[in-house]
Write a structure and sequence with these properties.
alpha/beta, Rossmann fold, DNA polymerase, domain 1, 2 domains, six-stranded parallel β-sheet, 8 strands, protein tyrosine kinase activity
Length: about 210
């Protein structure tokens, strides 16, 4: 049995339409010129505070975060789809005795709501998300501490360098997925022990490790 922590955005689900639309509405409300597409895409994954810090001080960051969360809760959380074979992969993993968790920088109530809407929340022991300004390592560590998990049998699975850095900082095995928002090069440079290119590959990888 292994303990598997999954990132959400870019790993379990393609949430980019809802995230980008919510950022677009936020910048419009604040009267700030809209960043280009690549910049907006780079906001998928990091904590909100990290993204908004490029545009203003702490007061601005807090204001922008509140506006973003309003738009995301109203509309963005529903603009999401599961990646192909994710549900089947989670089902097999759970049925074969592995323990599954979510560790995301997304606001925790929003993460829970999204996974409920996608009808995959029941595969997870618990869904851990940001409770404020948590970094990825903070979120993962809450899960490790609560369930008294140890690194040898625990994995962090995600699509960006934030997932790899967060997992490695806690001495976890790290698996980078290439169907999300990060690049293979970035995943490898930031500590990915393994790479997989489609969800079902995870089943064979875990059998071999």
């Amino acid at each position: 049995m292994k303990h598997l922590f999954f990132d959400l955005d870019g790993t379990l689900a393609n949430s980019s339409p809802g995230i980008i639309n919510s950022f677009t509405k936020t910048f419009t409300d604040l009267g700030i010129p809209l960043p280009n597409g690549e910049t907006l895409k780079s906001f998928i994954g990091p904590p909100l505070e990290t993204s908004f810090a490029h545009f203003g001080d702490l007061t601005f960051v807090n204001q922008a975060g509140d506006i973003y969360r309003h738009h995301y809760q109203s509309d963005g959380v529903y603009q999401v789809t599961l990646y192909d074979d994710i549900a089947e992969t989670l089902k097999v993993l759970k049925n074969t005795g592995h323990k599954l968790y979510v560790a995301t920088s997304k606001n925790q109530p929003m993460a829970i709501k999204m996974l409920q809407n996608l009808n995959i929340d029941h595969y997870f022991v618990e869904i851990f998300g940001s409770l404020g300004k948590d970094h990825k390592a903070d979120v993962i560590k809450r899960g490790l501490d609560k369930y008294e998990l140890t690194p040898p049998e625990t994995y962090m699975i995600g699509d960006t360098h934030y997932d790899m850095v967060g997992g490695k900082s806690l001495n976890l095995n790290t698996i980078g997925v290439t169907w999300g928002f990060g690049s293979e090069q970035s995943l490898l440079e930031n500590g990915a022990d393994f790479l997989i290119h489609q969800p079902l590959e995870l089943l064979d990888l875990l059998k071999a490790t």
